[in-house]
């Protein structure tokens, strides 16, 4: 390949790369334990096991008002949209109705459920169940949250 052809190929590749949408984005996943109003330490704790396509984050125990945050980079370009985090949850009140809960996915429909921007998903355990905390903005752009019940605690074992 001649020197001019190599230079033209380089410039063409740079132009195409600049015109493509961003292939990666920052993701943030937060799990919170807001179980309260209960006597007995055991009922207040939340056991969590999470994993993605690439990483197993293992089991962790969240005490009341504790949270865990994971930040990561996601691939957001078809056909590579694959970043997904799934978790299992156990509390003194039982487990979620689904054994495995998808708590983050780059799929646009899922990300819209997380709320404004879709790059941050927050999940909250409360006494009566497991909630997705949706991020909303008012007409002035101020951020607020709406908790949506996704699963009541159930006994399976």
TrEMBL record:
<comment type="similarity">
    <text>Belongs to the plant self-incompatibility (S1) protein family.</text>
</comment>
<keyword id="KW-0732">Signal</keyword>
<feature type="signal peptide">
    <location>
        <begin position="1"/>
        <end position="26"/>
    </location>
</feature>
<dbReference type="Pfam" id="PF05938">
    <property type="entry name" value="Self-incomp_S1"/>
</dbReference>
<protein>
    <recommendedName>
        <fullName>S-protein homolog</fullName>
    </recommendedName>
</protein>
<dbReference type="InterPro" id="IPR010264">
    <property type="entry name" value="Self-incomp_S1"/>
</dbReference>
<keyword id="KW-0964">Secreted</keyword>
<keyword id="KW-0713">Self-incompatibility</keyword>
<dbReference type="GO" id="GO:0005576">
    <property type="term" value="C:extracellular region"/>
</dbReference>
<dbReference type="GO" id="GO:0060320">
    <property type="term" value="P:rejection of self pollen"/>
</dbReference>
């Amino acid at each position: 390949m001649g020197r001019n052809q190599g230079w033209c190929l380089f410039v063409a590749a740079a132009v195409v790369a600049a015109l493509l949408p961003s292939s990666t984005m920052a993701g943030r996943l937060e799990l919170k334990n807001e179980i309260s109003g209960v006597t007995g330490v055991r009922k207040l704790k939340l056991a969590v096991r999470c994993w993605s396509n690439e990483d197993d984050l293992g089991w962790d125990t969240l005490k009341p008002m504790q949270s865990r945050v994971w930040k990561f980079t996601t691939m957001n370009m078809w056909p590579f949209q694959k970043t997904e985090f799934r978790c299992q949850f156990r509390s003194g009140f039982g487990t979620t109705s689904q054994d495995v809960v998808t708590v983050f996915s780059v799929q646009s429909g899922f990300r819209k459920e997380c709320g404004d921007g879709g790059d941050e998903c927050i999940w909250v355990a409360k006494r009566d169940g497991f909630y997705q905390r949706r991020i909303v903005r008012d007409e002035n752009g101020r951020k607020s949250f709406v908790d949506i019940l996704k699963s009541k605690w159930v006994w399976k074992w």
